[in-house]
Design goal:
Blueprint (H helix, E strand, L loop, with lengths): L4 H21 L3 E5 L6 E4 L6 H15 L2 H12 L12 H9 L6 H17 L19 E3 L6 H6 L2 H19 L10 E5 L4 E4 L8 H15 L2 H4 L6 H9 L24 H14 L8 H18 L29 E2 H14 L9
Helix pairs in contact: 1-13, 2-3, 2-4, 2-13, 4-5, 7-8, 8-10, 8-11, 11-12, 11-13, 12-13
Length: 362
């Protein structure tokens, strides 16, 4: 048995789960699934996570090579179009991950380009960010770490002005959300127009493991784009070293607690899957001193997810569910569930080990 047999089996299970999910949700978008029976809670337009479902469908199309699967992925991506004009920085998550695997598909490329231009038009040069936005309610002028991943590569595709905006957007979030060694900072900040300063938000809470994972992923994406890295005031390599030194990213628990302040609370496999992909990307940064450590840790994390948290039919569940994901611990929402973005990042990591995907391009 080869060392990647476990990855092959796990990817096959997740791809089978994608097909079962597609049959259940139809033209709606899956968000999270009940760990007792695998039934999905869905949204009509996808919300901030819609791109991950499209991305899973594109991964399946690569895996099977079937034209019908490519058509299904293209149709799902087209249904994201309404988000191009939405006031939200999560357009990075929606349109980067919803289109990056659609190589050679002109309609998907055109949609990504349109979304990139819209994000660039919303970039606020004075505050140095694409604002979190008001699409989901609440204050508009926020800097949140989940508004950075996807947005960096999406903006970078919008020409020189987009590259500069991507670097500034990452810079602002690093300055606010990235602490020094042993220091954790809040993952969300609000701009006060009256005194012109940023103040921390209470939600999400400091120690949110998915927030740390999102930031690490954005840093890795910037490092794989030297034109973006060269524009930043804080070089992404320095930021990566600081973040890797925090909270035992390379040596602590493979599956982190959803809230670092509650180590005995629910874990979050989706945070682990995002981190694994970020580490595999960092392992491909030329000349970096962390290459071997990141590669080892990324594979070890994927292996733990595949072998300890992936459902099996003998457990009375559909096979291929990445269980033990935590959507929102603070509000008690879907705290031990299958999450569509967790499935996506697990599948993406496994596909990169399988040679199906060049992870530096997604």
């Amino acid at each position: 048995m080869s060392s990647t047999d476990w990855a092959d089996r796990a990817l096959a299970a997740v791809m089978a789960r994608v097909t079962a999910t597609e049959a259940e949700v139809g033209t709606r978008f899956p968000l999270y699934a009940d760990p007792r029976n695998g039934s999905w809670t869905t949204t009509g337009r996808g919300a901030w996570a819609g791109g991950f479902w499209a991305g899973l469908l594109w991964l399946r199309a690569r895996y099977t090579g079937r034209d019908a699967d490519r058509r299904a992925a293209a149709g799902c991506t087209a249904r994201l179009e309404g988000w191009t004009g939405a006031d939200t920085a999560t357009r990075g998550l929606i349109f980067w991950y919803g289109t990056a695997l659609a190589e050679g598909v002109p309609a998907a490329t055109a949609l990504r380009d349109r979304a990139a231009r819209a994000c660039l038009a919303d970039f606020d040069p004075e505050r140095g960010i694409v604002p979190w936005g008001g699409a989901f309610g609440g204050p508009r002028m926020l800097a949140r770490v989940d508004g950075v991943p996807g947005t960096v590569p999406l903006l970078a595709g919008a020409g020189p002005a987009g590259t500069a905006a991507a670097a500034a957007h990452l810079d602002r979030h690093l300055g606010l959300c990235l602490g020094g060694a042993g220091e954790q900072r809040p993952p969300a900040w609000r701009f006060d127009d009256e005194d012109g300063t940023w103040s921390p938000c209470a939600d999400p809470r400091t120690g949110w493991s998915r927030g740390r994972a999102w930031l690490l992923l954005a840093i890795a994406d910037a490092l794989l784009r030297p034109d973006v890295a060269a524009h930043g005031q804080v070089h992404p390599a320095e930021a990566a070293e600081r973040l890797l030194a925090q909270d035992d990213v390379l040596t602590g628990r493979l599956i982190p607690p959803a809230e670092g302040t509650d180590p005995d609370g629910p874990s979050d496999t989706s945070a682990a899957a995002i981190t694994a992909v970020a580490l595999l990307k960092l392992a491909r940064v030329p000349g970096a001193g962390w290459t071997d450590a990141c590669a080892y840790r990324g594979v070890a994390t994927l292996s733990r997810l595949a072998q300890a948290h992936l459902s099996r039919t003998q457990d009375g569940l559909p096979a291929g569910m990445l269980l033990d994901g935590c959507y929102d611990a603070g509000h008690g929402l879907a705290v031990r569930h299958e999450l569509v973005w967790g499935d996506f990042f697990l599948a993406l990591g496994l596909a990169s080990l399988d040679g199906l995907v060049d992870i530096t391009r997604v």
